[in-house]
Amino acid sequence: MSSILTNNGAMVALQTLNSINKDLGNVQNAISTGKEVGNAKDNSAVWAISKVMESDVKGFKSISDSLALGESTVAVARQASETVADLMTEMKGKIVNAQESNVDRGKIQADITALTDQIASVIGAAQFNGLNLVSGSETVEVLSSLDRSSDGAVASSSISVNRQDLTMDAGVYNASGTDLSGNVTASDTAVVNTGITETLQLATSVAANDVLRLQIGDTSVAYTSADTDLNNAAAGLSAAINAAGIEGITATVATDTITLTSTVAFEDTDLTFTSTGATTGAYGTDAALEARAETVTFSGTAGVNEGDGYRVSIGSTDFDYVAGQGETMEDVAKGLKIAIDGAGLSDISTNVTQDANGAWQLQVDNAGASLAFAATGRSDGEATGGLAGLGDIDVTTDEGAAAALANIETFIDTAIDASAAFGSVEGRISIQSEFIGKLSDSLKSGIGSMVDANMEETSARLQALQVQQQLGVQSLSMANQAPQSILSLFR
């Protein structure tokens, strides 16, 4: 049936042409924007995912900037600490030269002072954008990542950069802080110059030509008996000990007994008696002469928190060291040694060692008048700088030169440890920065695979739709012309 009111063919052709034009519009939009999914209408689920990922990419760009800033800041600190280590190595060479008595120590001291000033200058200038990592003790956080969980929650991650305090600040001991006296013990209430004694009593019998031998540390002293009198043998061996000229060791004699006296400050001296005959030797307490120095023993089990301060009092003078971040009892002992040495007290010398249980000890020896001696500790102080006492090095005296040689090693180790710490964290930041760059590229690639148009496919699709459009127009034209044949029926 033909109708001049309803043209079904034209309606079908028009619908087809509209569909073709719509698809053609989508293809042209994809070509012009480069995206297959350009808005939520195109594909709401894919569009939503892509937008979340795009926000992450922008976040990672900011993180990359943060890492670059952090890496530069740490690099400056590392360079500064390495420079300080080099300068102190040079200073050590001058301190070694000062150990000789026939050099101009005044000129050497002037060089050491100049190097100290240069170190202070390096530390003060080692900042990037106002942040100095070789001064102070606060931890710096460098934003390193954004972590998105499966439920969509986002959390930030950071790389912690511990400051390495290379300043010469003395710190502040907090006398009202929590009592830490249980972590430190002084061996006596006074430090005196009295020699340490040990007795050796000869017994049993002695015969003529018996050889009596006493090993004193690394020195062996021998006496050949002239008769059978033990008292004469003791006197002869005592005289041989004094004649041996062992530094810090003297001997006196009583009936059959030798009294050994030691003023050796920091080392125990072992004693071993032997005889080629029947003579035996009995010690008063043990087979050793203990070191004369008094000791401050630090707990081998207690931890050290930032701000924990320890004080050693010698006479009327207090010497303090306040621990910084991550320090140990070894650092405390060495810090107190440096503080005492820097004061230049007459007749006072120090040493740091460990006891048989591994606990750190500060030894304090006095070659002069008796002085009061005590040790205590308090929390919540302001940390002492890692190079505190460097400016007090004085090689113009024998005692000062000897103390400087021991302490410069502590300073060098501090600078080396700081350099190593900065180098480690700088490497980590560099790795994270490289990873963030690759991650951003991967995210961009993933977003592209979801929303970007396949241009080869789109080009082919465009050509096909253009042909379909032409055919659709032709079909609609033919459908519209069909009713014209009805006119012939009315002629």
UniProtKB/TrEMBL annotation:
Ranges where the Flagellin C-terminal domain occurs: 407-490
Xref: Gene3D superfamilies: f41 fragment of flagellin, N-terminal domain
Pfam families per record: Flagellin_C, Flagellin_N
Residue ranges occupied by any Flagellin N-terminal domain in the UniProt entry: 4-139
InterPro entries linked to this entry: Flagellin (IPR001492), Flagellin_C (IPR046358), Flagellin_N (IPR001029)
Keyword set, alphabetical order: Bacterial flagellum, Cell projection, Cilium, Flagellum, Secreted
Localisation: Secreted; Bacterial flagellum
Gene Ontology MF terms in the entry: structural molecule activity
Stated family: Belongs to the bacterial flagellin family.
Known role: Flagellin is the subunit protein which polymerizes to form the filaments of bacterial flagella.
Name the record gives this protein: Flagellin
Lineage: Bacteria, Pseudomonadati, Pseudomonadota, Alphaproteobacteria, Rhodobacterales
